[in-house]
Structure formats: C-alpha cells, structure tokens
Design goal:
Distance between the termini: 11 Å
Helix content: 25-40%
Structural class: alpha/beta
Radius of gyration: 14 Å
Number of strands: 8
Number of helices: 4
Shape: globular
Order of helices and strands: EEEEHEEHEHEH
Strand order of the largest sheet: 1-2-3-5-7-8
C-alpha cells in the first residue's frame, strides 16, 4: 500500500492515513483495544508507511487499551515519534501507561495544533519512499 491511502485496522476500530509525512491513527471512541488489535494496527502502519518509520498522531479519545496492547504498541519500530491526542484525564493516564516502554519520543496533547507542531520536528528525519503521493484515496 502506498502512503497517503486510508487503511482500516483492528476490525474497523482504527483508521490510518498519511499526510505531509505524518501518519494519523484514529481510534473509534469507546473502543476496547486488545493485543490482536494492536498487532493489526502496527501491521497497517507498516503497510501504509511503506516500511519507513514516520511520526504519528494517534487520536485515542475514550479508548481502553489492555496492558498487552500497550506493550505491543511500545515495541513498534514503525514510528519515529508519537503524539497522542486525547481530551480527558483518563486519556492522559492511558497515554502515560503506553509510554513506559517506548523506544521513541511519546507525548500527550489535548490540542491537535500543538501535537502537529511537535510532530513536525520529526518529519525532517523521514525520507518518503519512491512513488510517495500525498493524496488520500479509499482502500478497497
């Protein structure tokens, strides 16, 4: 799959896209994410990024993530940094729990603009793959 496309993962709980060198991962509010969902989402990240680690904005408002899923996310090598976008204290606690074992910069934000500004610091370190397109089209 080429960057710029939209991909659904985790049985439709997660939607991924790429724009301006940043992966956006949106989790359906109210979702319960288990280790299988996390693995599926990380496979989708690998596909949508063409195997090149990129910065990621992860929208996780009102999402419950199992300990095993948090560990799985922390082990990924498919990202160079993650900005977690949430809206509540619970979202902040979930994001903090996820950051314990990460190998990459990980920050929590309540402002999308602030999250994107932070992630833009990491886009210069990413070289887009050959054939990169920044348009978005639906995955069939």
């Amino acid at each position: 799959m080429m960057p710029g496309h939209i991909a659904a993962a985790a049985d439709g709980k997660n939607v991924l896209s790429v724009s301006a060198g940043i992966i956006t991962s949106v989790w359906l509010p109210g979702s319960i994410v288990d280790v299988h969902d996390a693995r599926d989402a990380m496979r989708a990240v690998e596909q949508i990024s063409g195997g090149i680690p990129m910065p990621m904005l992860s929208e996780m408002t009102d999402v419950e993530i199992s300990a095993a899923a948090r560990y799985e996310f922390a082990q990924t090598t498919g990202v160079v940094a993650i900005a977690v976008l949430g809206s509540s204290t619970v979202d902040r606690v979930v994001a903090a729990a996820m950051s314990r074992h990460t190998r990459y910069p990980h920050e929590f934000f309540t402002s999308r603009d602030d999250a994107m500004a932070w992630l833009n610091n990491f886009t210069a370190t990413v070289s887009p793959p050959d054939g990169y397109t920044d348009g978005i089209s639906a995955l069939t």
